[in-house]
Amino acid sequence: MRLKFQKSCVVTSDAESRVGLCYELAFHETVHTSMGRPEATLVHGVIRDTHVLGKGAVICHAWVERDGIAWEPILQTELPIDIFIRLYDAEVIHRYPAKKALDLAMKSGHSGPWEEMPDHIQKTLVQINEERATS
Q: Could you tell me the residue ranges of all domains in the chain?
């Protein structure tokens, strides 16, 4: 299935069905939309969620950037990159041009993630999980 950038920030009714698929959806969007057009960049990073999972929650996430716009694959929304970064308190960990993403997917047999998160993110994830287990 070929995904397209959505022009609306309206949450579609099938957003729940995409939860947990950000790496796959962002990968496919990056590869398919880069064919013959300005290249998209696949971004792996983290977002800090305060709305759904509670204050301080850190979520490993993937999104697509092209021409100053970030496309978020779960809600299928577009935002200027600087607003996306602020709104989601996003931290970029890895950036992959479309060709590099395709090469990594072919070598690994999956759409990501392909690299470990840095230690400071790993420690935060462990700490959050421990706090949730005790509360």
A: 15-134
